[in-house]
From TrEMBL:
It comes from Vagococcus acidifermentans. It is a peripheral membrane protein. PROSITE patterns: ABC_TRANSPORTER_1, ABC_TRANSPORTER_2. InterPro entries: AAA+_ATPase, ABC_Ni/Peptide_Import, ABC_transporter-like_ATP-bd, ABC_transporter-like_CS, Oligopep_ABC_C, P-loop_NTPase. This is ABC transporter ATP-binding protein. Signal peptide: none annotated. GO terms for biological process: peptide transport. GO terms for cellular component: plasma membrane. The lineage of its organism: Bacteria, Bacillati, Bacillota, Bacilli, Lactobacillales. PANTHER family: DIPEPTIDE TRANSPORT ATP-BINDING PROTEIN DPPD (PTHR43297:SF2), OLIGOPEPTIDE TRANSPORT ATP-BINDING PROTEIN APPD (PTHR43297). Belongs to the ABC transporter superfamily.
Length: 295
């Protein structure tokens, strides 16, 4: 039987608003992530993918609160502020890298946070990690500043930094969205290789179905703060049931970020919408989709 690395039950996330009722961003999500798999979370901009992932890492913005956010990591309950062995990489490495510090500084910082070693030893380890993620002339790169590297190279640096934290789970949030197609393919293939070599579990967050196709064993489709459909990659691609999934699939060749592809005619903040009752329709043991209850 497949073991789950992550088991999320009843995750609800609200944003507090000045002089206005709280707005629900995430509606009672349940999600499991099997150990050793690459799981895709797909949905257009604003569907709640990032905020769900940030809640796992306890890096939610201050104006946001969670309710009933109990989750299991390797079958063990995780405390409200407990850190799980997970690392997250983001769309834009520049936001995570200090432009005034060298690449080496960033990597050595991460290494020395968890291990006692000299600067020289840490630099050797950093160079080895850069080589592992496909960066040539790693010793030279250590002395360079973020702006001296290309976008793809910077994303490789972010992946190296993430790996230095020795995660069991890697959350990649739109890791290739800012990159051109060739580089995108290289970064995805790097993530796939590392997943195998390091026996990582990976959550790949994207708005683009084209990205998850060759990467993921299973897919969860998010829309307006809910998972509206989930299944194996084959089930989602060849037998989509929810209208939103069907529309996203139709849009694959363009997959334009931010483009509204489907609408229920109201946003997630609409009280009528949040009061509506949804239930899952099971298609197979692994495939289900959300249905709105009428009446
Ligand atoms: N700190 C915040 N305050 C208010 N609203 C927020 C905050 N963070 C996120 N939101 C809102 O929550 C919703 C989900 O945002 P989230 O960033 O998770 O979406 P996403 O699916 O990851 O999209 P993107 O790819 O654009 O990041 C959006 O409507 C967003 O405007």
């Amino acid at each position: 039987m497949t073991e789950n690395m992550l088991d999320i039950t009843n995750l609800t996330i609200w944003v507090a608003k000045k002089d206005a009722p709280k707005k629900m961003l995430i509606h009672d999500i349940q999600m499991t992530v099997p150990k050793g798999e690459i799981v895709g979370i797909v949905g257009e901009s604003g569907s709640g993918k990032s905020i769900t992932m940030k809640s796992l890492m306890h890096i939610l913005p201050e104006n946001v609160e969670t309710a009933n956010a109990g989750f299991l990591f390797n079958n063990r309950p995780v405390g409200p502020q407990e850190r799980i062995p997970a690392a997250m990489i983001f769309q834009d490495p520049m936001t995570a890298l200090n432009p005034l510090r060298t690449i080496g500084y960033h990597l050595v910082e991460v290494i020395r946070r968890s291990e006692k070693m000299s600067k020289k030893e840490a630099e050797q380890l950093a160079a080895a990690e850069l080589a592992k993620v496909g960066i040539t002339m790693p010793e030279k790169r250590l002395r360079q500043y973020p702006h001296e590297l290309s976008g793809g190279m910077r994303q490789r640096v972010m992946i190296a930094m993430a790996l230095l934290a020795k995660p069991e789970l890697l959350i990649a949030d739109e890791p290739t969205t800012a990159l051109d197609v060739t580089i995108q393919a290289q970064i995805l293939s790097l993530i796939r290789r590392l997943q195998r070599e390091e026996q990582l579990t990976v959550i790949l967050v994207t708005h683009d179905f084209g990205v998850v196709a060759g990467m993921c064993q299973s897919i969860k489709v998010m829309y307006q703060g809910r998972i509206v459909e989930e299944g194996t990659t084959e089930e989602i691609f060849y037998d989509p049931r929810h209208d939103y999934t069907k529309n996203l699939l139709k849009a694959i060749p363009t997959g334009e970020k931010g483009k509204r592809l489907y609408s229920l005619g109201s946003s997630s903040s609409d009280s009528t919408e949040s009061d509506a009752v949804y239930t899952f329709q099971q298609v197979s043991p692994t495939h289900r989709y959300l249905v709105k209850q009428e009446g």
